[in-house]
Design goal:
Two copies of one chain form a homodimer. Chain A is of the alpha+beta class. Helix content of chain A is about 35%, strand content about 20%. In chain A, helix 2 packs antiparallel against helix 3.
Chain lengths: ~350, ~350
């Protein structure tokens, strides 16, 4: 009897792998691809045309750089780092320059990067002096045996490597100082933080994290995420961006993921690694996995993810009114989007 | 044809759930259970009898408290917090008092707690003033909408709640100051950290994190982990203990896990959530999942995990010479162990 069960189990295992329902109908099998996001906050339908153009231009510039690098055969890890640096430099997005400010009106930056070929990864949280937190995260990965460095220690590590430094006058833009001043007046009780604040400043409160995931020409996946976190955050609050498996993840065996939204929900639900686990152990496609996690596991109006798998399938899944995002691949796809369909 | 495939797939799904090979042979179905660990560092065979007794006594005291609370029907979350507090107070273990010291000879403490019934969680990293980091982590979970607070901000949050404070004279024991002085002399090049240091101070370098996982009488799972991290750590290095899904995880649907070892490997491999994912999506037992992750995913001599599932199955899996650990349950199990079998 046990032998029959064993035979049956083997047969089942084979059939499960063969089952055509478990694979994505639009499966791609070669080439390179890139997806980027600039946050899932705000309601794009209510944005001015000027603001929409600004965001689309920012995404497009980052996408074009990434696409050029991929065409040249550059490693995915270099691509995600350079693309995120462009978004960090762009004050339109909540990462690097132009980041939202914490309770004290200061900047505190988080970032993470991961190499899908060997699961090497690096992350930093609450850095204040390093101009490009994503590059600092990469050096944590390559120049230490650690994964996560935080606070002034992380900045000191960057200084020891002579990474470019920057001060408050660089990171804090007039627009963000103004948004912070409004926020400060509006939220009298700071005892409890609301991840979701009400009112017309929403788009300033949730400008959104930036991220990039890539499948390079050699078939390697990479992911990078960078953020200023939550407007008015206090007590050294850290979100999901620098948490490997929550807001950032890459593994050649499955996919590369970068998330944006209410970081706490991404952490407690292991969003990025859950998507990978559903593919790996549940034999689901990337699209099915990302949809299940974003649309059924995460609370409503929480955020979204960008992801790409080892076959070049691209996913941009969110449960908010919009997610600033862009995607391109070697098959000629080229999209820059803000709202549900535009 | 597609209808036949659909039918086959449904049949397969049913058979997969029925397949007796997928369930643990010694499956338990009721009652409560508790597992604790006090680190996977050092070689127990080389320890003095006195040191072994000291560690066994510490584990036993923590286990007895947890067992009594479980018998009384206390919630699992209260049990893991109180048990970890006992281990934090015990200078034998690398958490709270008696923790290892960072490069500067200072203490920096990390902790996390997670409620399996709703995936609520709280964590703190690099705190220096709060006497019981695990209780601070719990208050992050219950008194904020955040998951992770770090550095002086986390301590300020604890002070605002009037949690008990402590200074260097409390945390830094003579034994740890001595170990740190030896370490300082021995490692001239601090540029790169070796997670694994050589020599006879190994047991002091890797005294080990503490943790507790519980299935309570109501069927709820909970996990808690607390640590002083890595001897001589610098640049605000944070390991896996406060990272939900890496060193700490609990979900009633699968299991509760607490890890100990080279934190970086636990983070990049999402150790705790990977064990849960193999159960949830791969229909593996807790024992199979934990064994696969610890023995095949993690590098050799890296660390271990304690875990308990929603049926009360207990796992203590490690790939080091030993892991200080203890387990007890409502069926009368009562074990306190240090090495492979003793």
């Amino acid at each position: 009897m046990p032998r029959i069960i064993k035979l049956l189990a083997t047969l089942l295992a084979i059939l499960t792998f063969w089952n055509p329902m478990n694979s994505n109908a639009q499966e791609k099998t070669a080439g390179y691809g890139i997806v980027i996001h600039g946050g899932a906050g705000g309601e794009p339908d209510k944005w001015t045309e000027e603001y929409k153009k600004q965001r689309r231009d920012g995404l497009k510039a980052a996408l074009d750089l990434g696409l050029t690098m991929l065409k040249e055969g550059k490693p995915g890890l270099d691509v995600v780092e350079q693309v995120v640096r462009v978004l960090e430099d762009d004050a339109t997005f909540n990462a690097g320059r132009g980041c939202v400010l914490n309770e004290a009106g200061e900047h505190e930056l988080d970032a993470a990067i991961m190499d899908g070929s060997n699961r090497a990864c690096g992350a930093v949280a609450s850095v204040r002096k390093t101009k490009h937190p994503i590059s600092l995260a990469r050096r944590v990965m390559t120049d230490t045996q650690h994964v996560l460095l935080i606070g002034s220690g992380a900045d000191e590590f960057g200084q020891s490597l002579k990474l470019e430094q920057a001060g408050a006058e660089y990171f804090r833009t007039a627009k963000q100082i103004e948004a912070w001043e409004k926020w400060k007046k509006k939220i009298p009780d700071l005892t409890l933080h609301r991840p979701k604040a009400q009112g017309d400043e929403d788009e300033q409160l949730y400008l959104g994290t930036v991220g990039c995931v890539v499948l390079d020409a050699k078939g390697n996946l990479a992911a990078a995420t960078s953020t200023g976190g939550l407007m008015g955050k206090r007590w050294g609050r850290v979100g999901d961006s620098p948490i490997i498996g929550a807001g950032t993840f890459a593994d050649n065996a499955t996919c590369a993921v970068s998330g944006t939204g209410v970081g706490e929900d991404f952490i407690r639900n292991n969003v990025a690694s859950d998507i990978a686990a559903r593919m790996r152990y549940g034999s689901k496609s990337l699209a099915e996995s990302a949809k299940a996690v974003v649309q059924t596991v995460l609370p409503e109006d929480c955020g979204g993810v960008i992801a790409i798998d080892h076959r070049g399938n691209i996913v941009m899944e969110f449960n908010t009114p919009g997610m600033s995002r862009a995607a391109a691949d070697s098959k000629g796809r080229y999209d820059v989007l803000l709202g549900k369909d535009n």
